[in-house]
Structures are given as C-alpha cells and as structure tokens.
Amino acid sequence: MAGKIKVAVVGLGFGAEFIPLYQKHPDAECYAICQRDEKHLNEIGDQFGVERRYTNFKDLLTIDELDAIHIVTPINDHAPMTIAALNAGKHAASTVPMAITKEECLKIVQARRKANKVYMMMETAVYTREFLYVKEQVEKGELGKIQFLRGSHQQNMSLPGWPDYWYGFPPMYYATHAVSPLLALANADAESVVCFGSGTIRKEYVEKYNSPFAIETALVRLRNSDLACEVTRSLFDTIRQYRESFDVYGTKSSFEWEQIAGEGMVLHSGFEDARRIEVPDYGRLLPKEIAQYTVRGVYDDEHEHTSFIQGAGHGGSHPHLTHEFVRAIVEKRESSIDAERAANWTMVGICAHESAMKGGVQVDIPKPRQEVKY
Ligand SMILES: NC(=O)c1ccc[n+]([C@@H]2O[C@H](COP(=O)([O-])OP(=O)(O)OC[C@H]3O[C@@H](n4cnc5c(N)ncnc54)[C@H](O)[C@@H]3O)[C@@H](O)[C@H]2O)c1
Question: Which partner for 172 in 190, 202, 315, 352 could form a disulfide, CB atoms 3.0-4.6 Å apart?
Fold first, then answer.
C-alpha cells in the first residue's frame, strides 16, 4: 500500500507478536517475514496472511522498497544484523539487548549516524503500564525530587527448553529490563558502575561464558546528577518467581513494585501510609487500531498460566513500541530509544559484568557522542 512504512520482521518466536501490530497500525504494513526454519516460517506466514517469506536475512537487504527491519533473533545476531540493516539504508528496530560488547554498541551508534536512519531498541520495560503510570506521576511532580531508584530482573532459566545460547549467559548482559526504567525516570545517562557477583552457578554453565555468578548486583552512578541506582539480576540456580520490577523513591511519594506477580504496585505517600494501587492501561495514547493490544492477560488457574491476545503481553508495551518506531520513521525524527540511549542502557550491563569479573572495580561507561568517529 502506497505511503505505508514497509516493515520486515526477522525472527518469529517473540517476533511474531509484532506482526499483527504492523498489520493493523494505520501508518505501517508487515511487508515480509524472515526466519531460518522454512516450516515454521510458512506456518506463521499462513497464520497472519503474510505472502513475502524469506529464510535468509541477507535477502531482505536487497529489497529496495523495504523501509524497515525489526530484528528479533538470538542475542548474538542483534548487533551484526542491525549494522547490516542500517548499512543497507533500512531503518532498524532491535529487540533487547542492543549488543553484547561495548564495541558493538558504539559501532551501531556510528552506523546509524552514517545511514541517518531511525534506530530503536524495543525495550518493553519502558512501555509497560506500570512504567507509563509512574512516568506520568514523575512528570506531574507527584514524587517531588527523586532520591534513589532500584531495578531488578530475576528469572530462573535453569530449566530445560531454552535455546542453547542462554545457558550460562552472564546475567548483566541482559540487564536492560532492570536498568532502563531507572535511567528513563531519572532522565539521565549512566556514567560509571561497580558490580559484585554473588554465589556460583553449576559448573557446566560456568564453562560456556566463563561467568560464575548466580546473582550480579550493581550500583550505577548517573551523569550530571546526584543520583545513584541499584540493579540486581539473576538467571540460574537461584529460586525466585519471575520478577521484572523497579522502585523509585522521592521526597513526596515513592513507588515499589513487585513482591508477588500480579499484586500490583505499592504507593508510599507518607511515613505511615502505604497502599496498593491499580494502574490503568494506556491504550488511549495509541491509534484506535492497535489500542486493544494494551490489555492485560487472563490468568488460567487450572494451567497456572496467563494468556494474552497475540500482540499483547509484557505489560501492554508491544503496541507502544511499534507505534513509536513507526512514528519516528514517519516524522523523520530520532526514536525515544535511539542508538545513543540504547548504547548507554546496554553498556551499563556489559560494564557491570566487567566490574564483577574484576572483583568490583569501578568501570566507566563509554560516551558514544565523544568516542564514535565518523
Ligand atoms: N521482553 C522482551 O523484550 C523480550 C522477550 C522475549 C525475547 N526477547 C528477545 O527476543 C529475541 C528472540 O527471542 P525468542 O525467545 O523468540 O528466541 P528464539 O531463539 O526462540 O527465536 C529466535 C528466532 O530467530 C530466528 N533466527 C535465528 N537465527 C536467524 C537468522 N540468522 N536469520 C533469520 N532468522 C533467524 C529463529 O528461526 C527464531 O524464529 C532474543 O534476543 C530475546 O532476548 C525480548
């Protein structure tokens, strides 16, 4: 359709969630899909009625009329695919994390500047209804001055069934869900980090990435700010219900989230006053065609599982991310999670792991604006 942004989605596990969103967005279309396994590719293509199907990512780069590529492949591929997409003159969205080395992060910043295209890291944690609610309260001045922030992302991936590359993965290499709400609410970049590793994971996992720790906990100093924040990650051999949360403490009120999944946020509004609050959905910020995808999932007691309409999930964040990426392209502006910001958020984790491996020394986070030459 003339005038619509033509998007290809690469990687159709989590990536399939975004197909209906591009299809329904008034300014976009899901022009093509790509993944290596042809059988699954065809199943997804048939399910969503997408005709253009590719098993080789490189073929997408040669499609002149294609505007944008949304990358949702395994972690090691994010950086090389993003750079290839930008170098081919395509706008690029990438699932988290941006990359797994500092050098890759800086190369993406450089490639984006050279291409002058939109880059967006599709960080779900800064478009959940909880994040959008607290951001609104911060902007209205309800918290007063922010004094401290804490983020955590705890997951137990010791169970079988995950793709191989996960086992033994350094927890801080996938820290953006815990880092990003803090830096976004503080509206500041990270400057430096110290991190300690704690505990030990099983030997066969340690060998894969030479990363021994069960938990990594970092203190992050923010640039041009009096704030520090704390980030905790665990991935293996530590029992905890899945948790992706942030706490923010202010002079007038504070928010904490979450002890048990589904229990909601707690608002502290006085020394003795604390209560649970129900945050609203934020479909009203979106075009009506995709607003329905911000709704909550339905919990099935019998199977102990929450089911979502396809395209929803992760706190209602997917349609907001899709909308922001598409609108940044239409409006010819940088996205809300542009390459510099994504690099800073991602390098907090990379530098934190480096610090932990060196016994907790301070590691400065590179500043893309100064270090990238082009
Ligand atoms: N909340 C979030 O932001 C969130 C949630 C889930 C997953 N993710 C990220 O999404 C990514 C994918 O996760 P997943 O669970 O779907 O993983 P997965 O390994 O199940 O799926 C990866 C997909 O990529 C395809 N693929 C792999 N290599 C490819 C290549 N060279 N060319 C084309 N396609 C290729 C595979 O065929 C598969 O469809 C991961 O990097 C993960 O970090 C983010």
Answer: 352
pLDDT band at 305 (very low <50, low <70, confident <90, very high): low
Mutational pocket test of ligand 1: of 57, 73, 128, 317, the residue with most ligand atoms within 8 Å of the beta carbon: 73
pLDDT at 344: 97
Give pLDDT, residue 303: 61
Q: Does the Cβ of 74 fall within 6 Å of ligand 1?
A: yes
Q: Is 36 in the pocket of ligand 1 (CB under 6 A)?
A: yes
Average pLDDT of the residues of the chain? 94
Q: Is the CB of 73 under 6 A from ligand 1?
A: yes
Please name the residue whose Cα sits nearest to atom 20 of ligand 1.
13
Q: Which atom of ligand 1 is nearest the CA belonging to 163?
A: 19
Question: How does DSSP assign 331-351, residue by residue?
Answer: TTS--TT-HHHHHHHHHHHHH
The verdict on pTM exceeding 0.85 is yes
Contacts 24+ apart (CB under 8 A), 242-245: 242/154, 242/155, 242/156, 243/152, 243/153, 243/154, 243/155, 244/125, 244/152, 244/153, 244/177, 244/178, 245/151, 245/152, 245/153
The residue written with tokens 């604006």 in the block is 369
**Residue 83 pLDDT > 80:** yes
* H or E element in which residue 136 lies: helix 129-139
Cβ within 8 Å of residue 56, ≥6 positions away: 34, 36
Q: In this structure, which amino acid lies at residue 194?
A: V
> Distance between CA atoms of 117 and 342, rounded to whole angstroms?
15
Ligand 1 center to residue 30 CA distance, Å? Answer: 18
- Cis omega (within 30 of 0) on the bond before 371? no
Contact 37, 10 (CB under 8 A): no
Q: Ligand 1: which atom is nearest the Cα of residue 13?
A: 16
How far apart are alpha carbons 78 and 336 in whole angstroms? 19
Residue found by looking up tokens 């994390």 in the block:
97
Please answer whether residues 218 and 195 qualify as being in contact, where contact means their C-beta atoms are separated by less than 8 angstroms: yes
Whole-angstrom distance, CA of residue 350 vs CA of residue 360: 13
